[in-house]
Amino acid sequence: MIQQNIVKAIVALVLFVFAIGALGMVFEEEMAAATNWIIGRIGFAGMCLILLVTDTFVTPFPPDILLVLIAKSELAEHWPRYVLVLGMVSVCGGMLGWGIGRWLGHLPQVTRLFGEFKDEHRDFIRKYGFWAVVLGSITPLPFSVTCWAAGIMALRWQTVLAAATLFRIPRFFLYYQLIAYSGEIGRLFG
């Protein structure tokens, strides 16, 4: 299962970078105008709020769109600062999601649904839970779902925080680099 998800994540990432590269080559001026317009309307604080909500609650909004906004706007001049802050906000959102999962894990309906699974796989979850959070942290899979599940399965908060911090923040830097240089990568192959 982990191997399949990693392969899917790599394929999704390659397709995403290719799409951004193609769009950046064809619509470079339009993307710059659109991203600067969005940044002008919501600001960086608005971007952080959007990310906090999307990484706390289960939504279909990928955080990589915010990285595109940074890469294709005037924020690109100081990108390391902005990407670091977004990474930290994402970790905070994930931890809030973990808290929601812990709360949900005490509800009778959720206990019935996950209780037997949790009991049967408790050792597996404790042994490999860190790596499950790592997988959710670095892949395009919804990070919030990973964190909610970790909370429901009673994975220790320290484990979730360590996995998210060690892998989610570097993921933001890696994805930013791929997005920021996707136009150059596209030109090499175009």
TrEMBL record:
The keyword NAD does not apply. The chain crosses the membrane at residues 6-27, 39-62, 82-104, 128-151, 157-178. Keywords: Membrane, Transmembrane, Transmembrane helix. One of its GO terms (cellular component) is plasma membrane. The keyword Protein biosynthesis does not apply. InterPro entries: DedA_domain, VTT_dom. Residues 74-179 form the VTT domain. This is VTT domain-containing protein. It comes from Pseudothauera lacus.
